[in-house]
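Issue 218. Parser rejects a valid record. Input:
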Amino acid sequence: MSATASPPKTEQVALLVTCLSDLFRPQIAHAAVELIEKFGYWVDVPRQTCCGQPAFNAGEKDKTRILAENMISLFESYRYVIAPSGSCAATIKVHYPELFSEGSPEHEQCMKLGEKTHELSGFLVDVAKAALEKKSLPDARSMRIAYHDSCSGLRELGIRSQPRKLLGDRLGVDISEMSNSEVCCGFGGLFCVKYPEISTRMVDNKIVGIEKAEADVLLGGDLGCLMNIAGRLRRLGSETRVYHYAELLTDSDPGPAIGYQK
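Output the parser choked on:
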């Protein structure tokens, strides 16, 4: 993949793989490594645990503190920590500091970790100043691509224009914007388990937006949201394919869509 960037860098950065990518869609992490390394960074993937988002959402703050302390120690030596997930990055940047008393050493450590933690597209556009050359993807110009803005990435990190810029540069296509691209898909981690009927109605509303946009492909930046939407699309018999945006930015063929891998 050709890329245009500032002079090569030698900084070592850490990839926060995320639990869902590790267990269900490792190709997202592989794509993230490929993209980051194209801009001169050396990517390390230290052995890691969950960021603690499920525990935090469940009100288990004591357990989340243990995970947060582990993450602080794990990533202390890295210049940047990059996650292909807005929700995991937001957990570190926004919610870790809530776990400790302001002014305490732990709170200060959380703030330092948060300052160097980035969602993948935010890092590529805002930090690495990435400019990707066009990718030869069969039928790319004839595909209608829609984009789902996940709640955490959009509202807690301000991630919206960054993935769209990367996709425009790389694929040479405009996003077919959904009227409800910024509306929650109903996943919400534990929300979809606690309130399944409400969650189903929300994802059905999202699918109405996808259908109105006549999207062949739906992209997003949080695997939880994408699995939720892809699962519902498949159960309804839709042919719309779902991918993490990073999977379409690399040189590799993205392969089977989410929900269809063997």
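Fixed in the parser; the record now loads. The CA atoms of residues 218 and 242 lie 5 Å apart.
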